[in-house]
Protein: Ribonuclease PH
Organism: Pararhizobium mangrovi
Amino acid sequence: MRPSGRKPEEMRAVSFERDVSKHAEGACLVKFGDTHVLCLASLEERVPPWLRNAGRGWVTAEYGMLPRATGDRMRREASSGKQGGRTLEIQRLIGRSLRAVVNLEALGERQITVDCDVLQADGGTRTAAITGGWIALHDCLRWMEKRSMISYDKVMKDHVAAISCGIFAGQTVADLDYLEDSSADTDANFVMTGRGGIVEIQGTAEGEPFSEEQFNGLLASAKSAIGTLVEKQKQAIAE
Amino acid sequence: MRPSGRKPEEMRAVSFERDVSKHAEGACLVKFGDTHVLCLASLEERVPPWLRNAGRGWVTAEYGMLPRATGDRMRREASSGKQGGRTLEIQRLIGRSLRAVVNLEALGERQITVDCDVLQADGGTRTAAITGGWIALHDCLRWMEKRSMISYDKVMKDHVAAISCGIFAGQTVADLDYLEDSSADTDANFVMTGRGGIVEIQGTAEGEPFSEEQFNGLLASAKSAIGTLVEKQKQAIAE
Amino acid sequence: MRPSGRKPEEMRAVSFERDVSKHAEGACLVKFGDTHVLCLASLEERVPPWLRNAGRGWVTAEYGMLPRATGDRMRREASSGKQGGRTLEIQRLIGRSLRAVVNLEALGERQITVDCDVLQADGGTRTAAITGGWIALHDCLRWMEKRSMISYDKVMKDHVAAISCGIFAGQTVADLDYLEDSSADTDANFVMTGRGGIVEIQGTAEGEPFSEEQFNGLLASAKSAIGTLVEKQKQAIAE
Amino acid sequence: MRPSGRKPEEMRAVSFERDVSKHAEGACLVKFGDTHVLCLASLEERVPPWLRNAGRGWVTAEYGMLPRATGDRMRREASSGKQGGRTLEIQRLIGRSLRAVVNLEALGERQITVDCDVLQADGGTRTAAITGGWIALHDCLRWMEKRSMISYDKVMKDHVAAISCGIFAGQTVADLDYLEDSSADTDANFVMTGRGGIVEIQGTAEGEPFSEEQFNGLLASAKSAIGTLVEKQKQAIAE
Amino acid sequence: MRPSGRKPEEMRAVSFERDVSKHAEGACLVKFGDTHVLCLASLEERVPPWLRNAGRGWVTAEYGMLPRATGDRMRREASSGKQGGRTLEIQRLIGRSLRAVVNLEALGERQITVDCDVLQADGGTRTAAITGGWIALHDCLRWMEKRSMISYDKVMKDHVAAISCGIFAGQTVADLDYLEDSSADTDANFVMTGRGGIVEIQGTAEGEPFSEEQFNGLLASAKSAIGTLVEKQKQAIAE
Amino acid sequence: MRPSGRKPEEMRAVSFERDVSKHAEGACLVKFGDTHVLCLASLEERVPPWLRNAGRGWVTAEYGMLPRATGDRMRREASSGKQGGRTLEIQRLIGRSLRAVVNLEALGERQITVDCDVLQADGGTRTAAITGGWIALHDCLRWMEKRSMISYDKVMKDHVAAISCGIFAGQTVADLDYLEDSSADTDANFVMTGRGGIVEIQGTAEGEPFSEEQFNGLLASAKSAIGTLVEKQKQAIAE
């Protein structure tokens, strides 16, 4: 049995709270159980230097954790003077995932930065950030459409959402929390679009190597969970 | 008239939300109008190197702002590689203010770090952080008392709270929001205890120098506002 | 009694030595007793990026301490890779204080940087830096006037000087040296103009909170001391 | 057709040159075509601070690129003051991959660092680094065995090797070079053991999302290629 | 007797391997015995900011060491966040030495960076880097000449090469290896041109100060060795 | 003729001012004409980590320049976040030079740091720093002897002093000031002991390479100048 008491395929309670920022063009407080991530999209009328005059825009992400988002307080990255390897790896993943569903030419020469700050962590912060980041990006693009800056349908190509699946006590489980993640044999993150296309797969054997068969089980579980997440995204933006 | 439509002495709606963290020993989401600061107290069973074997503990604070807490997105300090002068100045002020009401000997050889992270900024973030930080510190000390680590009454000497007052359009006003702060002639931050003792005064003439008389007006206004804040703290911890 | 043997209101010997630099447009070696600060003003025909084409100039300050300016050698900030919070706080204060008496529009699109480097420290380095920095700024503006770049009287609006006052052994004392500062209950820095306007007040309770009455005593003492400092500035620039 | 003229499943010429260091305990210059990586294993009789007295050792990796390993010169990371996100991501991957086949308890309280420095880059540097890094690790463990520090067979559990596969012009191809990598639709890196267990999977859709079917094709191709690489490792260490 | 068994004036085996890079405009793997330095010249069509529109180009160098180039593994400079004083000192020396034989006006507004990365160190890395760096620079200029960008003979004024000489066990010896360097009383590096002009002399007494007479002995020894090195350069570029 | 109007061998006015610090164990304000360097020696009862329990002490130096020590204001190194290559090179040279005349075993397990801060620069700052640094070191050792910590004569082995010589307009000149240094063909720094032993030679051809004959002229000129400097040191410490 899972420490959380959930069934193997059972996800945690997922919620998206929109309109949580006075300032940002798009905003979403996403919760996957006790994992809470504030996703704020910022529009800027400029692109990174290496993209100047290229006729297209850019979507990027930054990721951070409050020092006491975790069980033990971690050192503040601003104070230690650099972002750690884990932080950089995650924010690159979020950025790639969001760009996978955006038509950068149709966006025009602008940059959208989605800041994903973990207010409370309990496993799966990167998958929550991608899934909630999409909502913030959606609201930012709707904000732009209202001001006749873009046509939403030309820029946003699809939904994107993410889930972690793992092998825990010999069984395939979905949406691992911190306790499960810490003792899972294998942990994999999947990013997929609303139409079921795969955007990213990152699977790691924490202990013993895993087999192709086991991996296929993880992928099947992820497909189902991401389908559910996309449904929830649709409900959230319909409100 | 004030841009906010408030009367000169009128503060913004102030609220303290406790129990907002699964992990921290003390926690408070404080709101001064649209200024929202998450204050999380972390207890560690060690002291800074320069205080080892000195027979007393330490209370310190760290301050941060989410990049899009503000109207324009600011660069993430973790990414720029250092904390700016404003950040360092504010976190030193919060730390001094909280230490002013703590008996460090009675705390024992432990450190409490109060992380104050601004989720949304609209002026007065440092005064909200001090006022809400006190609640987080209070809850941390109660947490310790429950575990028989300390006697709360020996460690916590008094309340501490803070407010900004300024001279806006020739008039003394309390609790400036961002718009008022930007065009005030003079801006002063006051930190006082529950018994009315002064812990910190920081007054700055933004435009013309101010007179002793004007300053006394600011101080009187601050006294009254801080009295109100302390009352609200008492209600919050009584719940 | 004060460790220095001085009477409560008695300041240390104050002197301003001008023309101490072969290169700088304005220069002053200021001494408040054993506190020695070299203030050098540098004129540059450019403004910070955020002020470009705004039709006005900028006055800023930088502060540093030689590693052995103090009783124990401190680590060189250039070697530790960053300026500490105290340094940043002080140089921001010096800059604000000097700008309070300068008409930035009349200065034109230029920047004056006043470097205040502490050669020897014995308490009150920031107040000495502001008071001596004003002399360096004055000489820089006279240098510019000689070259018909500005009209001095339009740019320089007033004198500015600073003093620290504190409560030591229950008594209000002026111009604390290091020994007094280390054991004072309350320490406050005041920055005022030649006409008595207040530019900055920074008061901190080191031990017990202080009362409004005590604070008014500090302010009165500061007023008197700053009056004396401004007189000394006038003598210095008349030579 | 592939730009390299290779058949879809055809790998580049792979070679392992051992004994290329006067100093290192294990060394291998690995070449995957024009991608050349120097892998040097260093043994130290200490472990990272967080592993002290835990009764086991550690294997870690560092990755670097000479500034002109690439077509355009890149800025030297030592000069820019930090390792980029890509570098950190890759060296974490190499470390995890090597640890997957090492019994850390049997290693004892020692650390082996495998430095993988890219002398020339033409795509696939991380897969070459893992595959050649294993040889360097092997030689380091043999060096230790000769000195009776460990029993090789208890420490080294299996081979580990890696390959990148991608979808290029609609076809599954193995071992992408830089030109192919730049225009592939999907790029995935696979790390597997000698017995066929999967250690890491990292798949990224560069353009369009990919399907489960396409991914299975990549995995099959990787399995075959890694089988070949393990054979070549066996020949190399038999010499 | 020398630890290396060489005669006092005997240099180590010196070799230059050209065409060792798929990408660089000029390349040379230089070996002075067990000291191996990879020198790669990169041409860029831009100059440093301070040289813009000055009508001339720039030649500069960067120096690095692989972490395990040495007997004990050293910390990677990219990871420690800065280049050490020794590194900066050496790369400044290499840059000055190469510029001494280049006509920067005839080069045009371009920059050539010669990266000298030590793959294996056994003393004399800086002298090997200068001597091999000249070959890389030569090949880069020939590459440019082929593309009619410059006239080689107008840009390259002479050869430049370098050697270390020292006083070991009371005797003048040439081309010290690490073991000799570690226990030499005096160590001096000499950089000279093909025509025998002196470009740089750096002599340091490690233990006892040395006399003028001893220094003249070192200089004579260096002259002879550099003559030999220049001959070897001529052979290398003739191939 | 020299821009300074001096004769070829003529040095600038040299002076040593002792007792210029309230805090440092040894102190000297050295002036070579308009080059002014404050040298402060600090004694610490600990050694660097790599020298622990080695039964000997350490002498080291740090070098800095006030931002406006020069004609144009330079960026403060503390603010730019690192010490430049020139700074590191110079402070390493000063440290080596002073250690050349100290018996580190006789010093005991202590460290003396000589901070050399340039208050005003006009060429020759490193040679002034070495020459004045010796005075500060001398006074520090005498301070220790008074407290029976060491025997001065066992620790201090000799004087050390330094001078720059160059070839200016075809002529050998001593003690170059900034103007001469900027346009000299060759610039060399010499460090020698009181008994005439050579500690360091650093010669650089700024334009054309120089000949052995020219170099010998520089060395002869340096010998004479350093003899004079040592005489002046003797007078200074006799006062």
Remarks:
- The radius of gyration of chain B is 18 Å.
- The first strand of chain B starts at residue 14 and ends at 18.
